[in-house]
Amino acid sequence: MAKSKVVEKDKKNELDNQSADIELKGQSKNEESKGGKKKVIIVESPAKAKTIERILGNDYQVISSKGHIRDLPQKQFGVDLNSLKLDFEIIPGKESVVEQIKKMTSGKEVLLPSDQDREGEAIAWHLSTILGVKGKNIITFTEITERAIKEAVKNPREIDMNKVNAQLARRVLDRIVGYMISPLLWRIIKDARSAGRVQSAALKIICERERERYRFVPQKYFKVWIDIAGLKAYLTKVDGKKIKPTDITEEISKDVLQKVKSVRLVDIDVKEVRKNPPAPFITSTLQQDAASKLGFPVSKTMKIAQELYEGVDTKEGHTAFITYMRTDSTRVSDVAKEAAEKFILKNFGREYLNESSEVASKKGSKTKGKVQDAHECIRPVDVNITPEKAKELLDKDHHKLYELIWKRFIASQMSSAIYKQYSYDFESGKYVFEASIRERIFDGFEKVYTIDNEPSEKHKELKVDQEYLVEPKSAEAQTTPPDRYTEASLVKTLEMEGIGRPSTYATIIQTLLDRGYVVKKRKTLIPTILGFVVNHYLEQRFPDIVDKGFTAEMEKELDEVENGKKDWKEVVKSFLKEFNKDLERAKNEFFAIDFDTDITCEDCSGNYKLKVGKYGLYLHCPNCKTNKALKSDVFGVIDGNKLYVLEEQESQEENGEKNSVQSEESSANSGNRKFYRKRRTSGSKKSSTKSASSKAKKK
Ligand SMILES: [Zn+2]
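The line above is the sequence of DNA topoisomerase 1; the predicted structure tokens follow.
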């Protein structure tokens, strides 16, 4: 069982360090008084410290700072907007930790591991600044294994200030937006929590999808098909021209049903289709796959992945299982590639080996010695710890995620799956029906991992020119609006739009949920009315902040700071120049929340208005002057300047609950409670929403 959070403490040291709350192992008081070990490694987490200490043994003392130790002040702004001088302070509560670290490192060689990203580099920079250590004291690795750690301590490097600056710029931009906009937001919407830079762009994406769904007008169409020899052939052509399914009208359907009595098989088209193995996981794809296959929210995935990376207690000792989990690189190190190839050869055979991966690894060895992209994909640190073996070492959830990572990685190094695709064309007069099936003739990577659970269907031995008597069938269908986002599909969209980075996807979603701007129902993300109101305000007053293009551009500029192509202060200053204009206007111009709604007043025939008062959002009838509370379980869409309430309906599918375990996407689509827009009426019919109808005191 994994008990990563429980770190054994040396009793004696626990007494010594009680005040400092520092994890310290394997060092006796005697050693300390003699000067003890010469080299000290400071890491952020106790679990990581334990794994590294186990690897390096007696020459090193490994201590943990337990997360960040220095940041912008909690009670002041901390940024001089002219000079961009930053006023950092020790995070309250961390003073004693810092004192302890200072004591333990004085006169010793200090090594600071930096995860392969900006945040890790910044933490190392804060520490080295506080401790006053200079020179080559940064060590880097993407996995906490004996090979990687021993290699890392042999090759320390200097701090990469470009990386640190990119992180400082991000911190300052977020600080400016949060600190400047939030008070304005509170002035207008008392129960708004705050505004964040990247979350605001994500909120807008979610609100826009809801609006799109609301505006969506379903289109009726007909599915027309024939059943022949176990095949389902759909109408695909009329008069020699392809017809889109949604273009099949009732007229066409009726005509087919009336006229088509027999069809002739005119063509069988057979072609080979190769399904290529997926790339190994990066942060975003891991989050999506764990959501759809395991039903894990992204925050849970990241928490477990971090524990697997840092190391967990197992019956065979404290061990790390995977490489660093925040990455957008699919690169695989030569060592890992070789290990995977050996594993595949031994367990599956040569035909299962990805030919291109062999070529790639040979190429890779030629370029050895050259500086390479330091980042790597998310993969097992040892492919020989198979999911079966890991089952005995890990608890259920850790094992599930590890199994997914292991399978995806092995699959990425395997050969393509090969399918034969059979298309059967049946003709009757001007109509052509087509049936298509795929038969798998070689499983390849699908031996260990599936992308889409495609069934393999046996092809049918049919003869061209054969006539068949048929009874065409048809069913009415209608187009459906785009789905609401799930956590998985939102991460995919954020990545596609270039908003956020591997380290921020989980935080973005969590922040929107924590602030009550978005709620999660049946795994889908639904904007609340408060979320819509906040988004409306930001759209009106700070259009850049919620603009996905602008946010993506900022991310690119931060990348350029990291690559040394831009100065971080210039990036922040040019942002401030535009931002200040919006800020001045927002400060000086009156802004009121006053939306029309489609909710009918309970006391007269008028419609309520949505307003904001001392206690938050409420409904007001301008006709009879009564007020009603707006209940939190009411959902709606703000479109134009009007709030349209959505009605919750029970849907027919009863099996939504069962599906949710296997597939987030499928449960999102078949959940048994859905919100529908009210039928737009011509004005005479009015309905009041039940959920908004409880009486509230007048404000
Ligand atoms: Zn009224």
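Note on the example: The chain has 23 helices and 25 strands. The chain has five domains: 11-159, 167-216+483-588, 220-277+418-478, 283-412, 594-677.
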